[in-house]
Specification:
Its cofactor is Mn(2+). With 301 residues, the protein is of the alpha/beta class. The protein is built from 12 helices and 8 strands.
Length: 301
Amino acid sequence: MNKIVEIIGAPSTFGQRKLGVNLGPDAIRYAGIVERIEAIGLSVKDSGNIKLPEIDLKKFNSEQQGLRNLEEIIETSELLSHAVSNSIENNHFPLTLGGDHSIAIGSISGVSKHYENLGVIWYDAHGDLNVPEESPSGNIHGMPLRVLAGDGDERLVNISNYAPKVKPEHIVLIGMRDLDEGERRYIKEHNIKTYTMAEVDRFGIKQVMEETLDYLKEKTDGIHLSLDVDALDPIETPGTGTRVLGGLTYRESHFALEMLHNSNLVTSMDLVEVNPLIDHNNDTAEQAVGLVGSFFGETLL
């Protein structure tokens, strides 16, 4: 990679109900992400955190009707879309640090306008494919990928004044092990390429990643990686808000990211859902930084 890696922090906690994930970008910085990437020989521009709405604790802790913190997420998404789009216009590689996974609405909105057919690898325990009427919680961090595909609240769908940002046939889900009924139905109806943990166990991560890259490279002109740390087993990454047992191992994830690096196909990335308030000694942020190192080409020898 000969681009400058631009780090953009999106410290949003509005997409779910646990405080602390808004501290994720700074926890990842504290774990040494800038130094880790620079040690590989790449240039880094840390653009700091985008300025988000204040957290109103009374509202945040209340039982809201409909979509939780919708107005705040719309504002966050527009700001982040603009920042990420500017990064690409400056020929940088945008690396967005969350924050909860609702920030992908903004980051991918900023990326997709620069590509005719953007591909998305959603590395996560969850599909994040809910719509408001089917969501069991109203938490928007369970909806971003469906919003980006053009379904959901119109104000979210039309962030940056265009939709959809990604076609279902250009999505690959990896690490799935917790899907709601509506998400399962949507995946089947749209034939979204999906690797549950059963497939990872059956085929191995090498085959999963080879098939993913073969599937996307012929039909897309850019690939965005959205990596939620809860894709990994919570034994590996305890500091995240929606932990699901039976996830990917740390070693499998390193190998997956090494393969993505070697493909030279990924053009932007999110790293989300690190919550230092429920972590142990910032372990999850440190694990996340290690994964980023593999993604950018770090090797032992």
